[in-house]
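Translate structure to sequence.
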């Protein structure tokens, strides 16, 4: 939660402890961070949605699986996806519901949404855990191969599912490079070096 964490960052600021902000942007209206390092979640959502739309041929009905309600990363990823879907007259978002970044929650939510929306042709999941839960639900529904599913993070099991032809695509948010860049930024801070206000990691 980019806003809810702000009071804790305020305490770190008061204690002169530098904060390296990674992945989810913190609301700095009442606090400050040394730098922000991430693959922009909004951009990741857009690029994933573009890939899904391409595979759909620019037409079809999409179910969106959101992360935990109120989390900035979910807001940004889903916002990017929705902006892409809105560009296409023949792409309809038929349902959008939180599945809390969780595979089991996603499985249950997807089963319910498929029952309510039997005309769904694609699922956009805001992370790979939810994409894998959706894949299980689609298989349970007897529609594996008929519904395109996209996720984010390039988790090993998602990559394996893509290689097996069961998952349509994932977006690599390059967690390794985000972690590496964050530690380097911390070292630079300890050495008294000046940091840029933010560093965008390529996805």
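Result:
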């Amino acid at each position: 939660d980019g806003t809810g964490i702000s009071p804790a960052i305020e305490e770190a600021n008061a204690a002169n402890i530098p904060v390296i902000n990674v992945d989810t942007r913190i609301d700095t209206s009442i606090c400050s961070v040394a730098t922000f390092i991430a693959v922009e979640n909004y951009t990741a959502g857009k690029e994933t949605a573009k890939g899904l739309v391409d595979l759909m041929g620019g037409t079809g009905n999409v179910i969106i699986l959101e992360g935990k309600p109120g989390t900035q990363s979910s807001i940004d990823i889903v916002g990017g996806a929705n902006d892409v879907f809105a560009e296409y007259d023949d792409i309809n978002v038929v349902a959008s519901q939180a599945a809390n970044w969780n595979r089991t929650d996603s499985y249950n939510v997807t089963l319910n949404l498929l029952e309510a929306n039997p005309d769904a042709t694609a699922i956009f999941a805001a992370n790979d855990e939810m994409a894998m839960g959706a894949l299980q639900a689609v298989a349970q529904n007897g529609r594996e191969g008929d519904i395109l599913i996209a996720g984010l993070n390039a988790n090993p099991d998602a990559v394996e599912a893509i290689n097996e032809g069961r998952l349509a695509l994932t977006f690599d948010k390059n967690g390794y490079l985000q972690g590496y860049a964050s530690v380097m930024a911390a070292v630079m801070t300890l050495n008294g070096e000046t940091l840029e206000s933010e560093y965008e990691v390529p996805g």
